[in-house]
Write a structure and sequence with these properties.
305 residues; 7 strands; 48% helix; UBA_UBXN1; coiled coil; UBX domain-containing protein 1; K48-linked polyubiquitin modification-dependent protein binding; UBA
């Protein structure tokens, strides 16, 4: 009854009966070691604790016609009783004697040690597999992080390039305004330089002695102003003051504000006169200050568009 003694030995070691019966049946009663291997391999099966149902015509502990009987199996001289199929008998020459309690305990102790070694080997194998999985997970995470960093770097390069092109465009636009202002100054200097004062003297001599001006009306000296003093009130309450030529366009004042004011670069704004209130348009930017009535002095206010 080797099968029954294998069953008893595993039960004495603390295994559940349902598991032990399945292990003995599925290993074909090939010994305690194979039964223990089967138990450790199928420990995680969902039906491991369900009662064992033997096939029709086969009862656990009975004889299996497909398996050789224990009497027909060859015995190995000097075999370890712990691995010879679990038979709790001691070979003594040609006879067998039952194992005493001390020998049973020794056999169970060796089986438990064998099981402990196998469990430790399985745990080591599982730890190695877990380490490999963790390494693979970290490698995949690093690859994903590198891809994200590459995409972010490409996006940052595009933004920097776009910002640089915008700054270049703004700088070129300001330079065009400065060049236009410089050309206007040169043209006015060639057109009006040195001739305005002599023309004024000739007209005065032809008219004779000046008569007393009327009590009301604009002062005649207003026509003689060649410069005007402009004060600009900034958005933060500060003020900028500068002197411009009377024939300079209003755009010169705007460029002066962009170059010397504390407004953020690229921020657009408009100019207006508070009294009487007047908002200057893009067409007004090309008109001289004298034509806009800003000579000899004026106060302008900056407003956001």
């Amino acid at each position: 009854m080797a099968e029954q003694t294998t069953l008893d030995s595993l039960l004495e070691m603390g295994f559940d009966r349902n598991r032990v019966e399945k292990a003995v049946a599925h290993t074909g009663n090939q010994g305690i070691e194979r039964a223990m291997d089967w138990l450790m391999e199928h420990e995680g099966d969902p039906d491991i604790d369900e009662p064992y149902v033997p096939p029709v015509g086969n009862v656990l502990g009975g004889s299996d016609p497909q398996l050789p009987s224990p009497a027909a199996q060859p015995t190995t001289q000097g075999a370890d009783p712990a691995t010879d199929g679990g038979d709790q008998m001691i070979h003594d020459g040609d006879t067998k004697r039952p194992m005493i309690e001390e020998e049973k305990r020794e056999q169970i102790k060796r089986l438990e040690e064998l099981m402990r070694v196998k469990q430790e080997e399985r745990r080591e194998r599982e730890r190695a597999e877990e380490v490999d999985r963790e390494k693979q997970r970290r490698r995949q995470g690093q690859e994903l992080l590198q891809v994200k960093q590459k995409l972010q770097e490409d996006e940052m390069k595009k933004m920097v390039d776009l910002r640089r092109r915008e700054k270049d465009g703004d700088r070129m636009a300001k330079q065009r305004v400065r060049d236009k202002i410089a050309r206007d100054r040169e043209e006015r200097a060639l057109k009006f330089g040195g001739g305005s004062s002599s023309t004024a003297l000739t007209s005065l001599s032809a008219e004779g002695p000046p008569s007393s001006p009327p009590s009301q009306g604009p002062p005649p000296a207003k026509k003689d102003y060649n410069e005007c003093r402009i004060q600009v009130r900034m958005l933060d309450g500060s003020a900028l003051t500068s002197v411009f030529k009377a024939q300079e366009p209003l755009a010169a004042v705007r460029v002066y504000i962009q170059m010397n004011g504390d407004a953020p670069e690229g921020q657009d704004f408009t100019l207006l006169s508070p009294y009487p209130r007047r908002v200057y348009t893009e067409l007004d930017m090309e008109k001289p200050l004298q034509e806009l009535g800003l000579v000899p002095s004026a106060v302008l206010v900056i407003a956001k568009k």
